[in-house]
């Protein structure tokens, strides 16, 4: 399993638009076989940083999602919404291997 971690720098005056954007993407990730863990919006501290995390069974499954999302009308509409509102100034993407409490794994 691979988890994609996204750190967004937002326009602090467009938080509501970004929240709408996040609500568009959560079911789309799941539509393509991923599991979305949610968006985390500014509360205390920095007013322009948000996070998101979602997992796919493998990096190959994530790459398929990326390719397929570029052709999907709902995904294209979500990309366009962010572009039109300019709610996202920049973002960083990192990948992690999650460890959950219910997984019994032996050391390699």
UniProtKB/TrEMBL annotation:
SUPFAM superfamilies: Dimeric alpha+beta barrel (SSF54909). InterPro entries: Dimeric_a/b-barrel (IPR011008), NIPSNAP (IPR012577). Residues 8-99 form the NIPSNAP domain. It comes from the Bacteria. This is NIPSNAP family protein. It comes from Pseudomonas hormoni. The lineage of its organism: Bacteria, Pseudomonadati, Pseudomonadota, Gammaproteobacteria, Pseudomonadales.
């Amino acid at each position: 399993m691979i988890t994609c971690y996204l750190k967004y720098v937002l326009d602090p005056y467009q938080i509501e638009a970004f929240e709408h954007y996040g609500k568009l993407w959560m079911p789309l990730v799941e539509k393509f076989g991923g599991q979305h863990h949610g968006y985390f919006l500014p509360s205390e501290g920095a007013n322009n940083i948000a996070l998101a995390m979602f997992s796919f069974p493998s990096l190959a499954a994530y790459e398929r999602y990326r390719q397929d999302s570029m052709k999907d009308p709902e995904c294209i509409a979500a990309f366009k919404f962010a572009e039109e509102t300019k709610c996202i100034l920049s973002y960083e993407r990192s990948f992690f291997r999650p460890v959950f409490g219910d997984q019994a794994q032996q050391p390699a």
